[in-house]
Amino acid sequence: MDREFEAAWRPLPVWSAVWVGALSALAVGLIIGLIGYAIGAHQLTAPRTMTFRNVGLLTTIFNVSGAFFAFVVGGWVAARIAGLRRAEPAMLHGVIAWLVTLPIILVLASLGATAMYGGWYAGLVAGPAWMAVPPMTPETAAAVRNGALAAVVALLLGLVGGALGGWMASGEPMRVAYYRRRDRAQVDAPRRVA
Which of 63, 130, 158, 173 is deepest in the core (most CB within 10 A)? Predict the structure, then answer.
């Protein structure tokens, strides 16, 4: 039965898989962010001056896991929809889904809509485009710097998550030694003469 199903299965075109993976990452990131807000994980322990000392452990856990696991799901979905069985192209699809998601996150950030994704993505822009920018004070400059650092970490965690999700979707073992033996077995295998 499985072989009949695999023979009938046709993967979708590449860009369909990538777009669905990107949208999946956005959806999962939003869900994790909203759960964090619902349980109070995104509350700062001090006033709005953003320093990493004022961020609670639960807030950090939700932001890190939200940034990472949203793109693990996005990479996994992109590779599964594309029907990839090799780790390398599956990881590439996960990374491409991450790349497609970046402009969407930037548009959401410019509209002020990344607050529900957690505090890490808030550093992508200083504020919504329609708000007047207050004069820069040393505290504001420190908050902008720390927000930008947090956004870079969140985006890089998303990149790693997208690649890891694609690798998981391929079904190949996640051991480096496997890939050395796999390539050697293909080179050493006798060729069939037709």
Answer: 158
Helices (H), 83-137: 87-110
Q: How do residues 74-83 score in pLDDT, each as one tens digit? A: 999 999 999 8
What is the value of pTM for the model shown? 0.76
Q: Are 169 and 73 in contact (CB under 8 A)?
A: no
Spatial distance between the Cα atoms of 182 and 81, rounded to a whole number of angstroms:
24
Query: Measured between alpha carbons, how far apart are the two ends of the chain, in Å?
Result: 30
Q: How many CB atoms lie within 10 A of CB 157?
A: 21
Contact 68, 50 (CB under 8 A): no
d(CA 162, CA 98): 6
Q: Which residue has the tokens 């391929």?
A: 170
Residue type, 25: A
Handedness of CA 57, 144, 122, 97 (dihedral sign): negative
Is pLDDT above 90 for 63? Answer: no
Residue-level pLDDT at 115: 72
The per-residue pLDDT for range 115-135, each reduced to its tens digit, is: 777 666 766 766 555 667 667
Please, are residues 91 and 163 in contact by the beta-carbon 8 Å criterion? yes
Give yes or no for a contact between 79 and 11, defined as CB atoms under 8 angstroms apart. Answer: no
Q: Can you give the pLDDT at residue 56?
A: 67
Instruction: Measure the CA–CA gap between 94 and 98, rounded to whole angstroms.
Output: 6
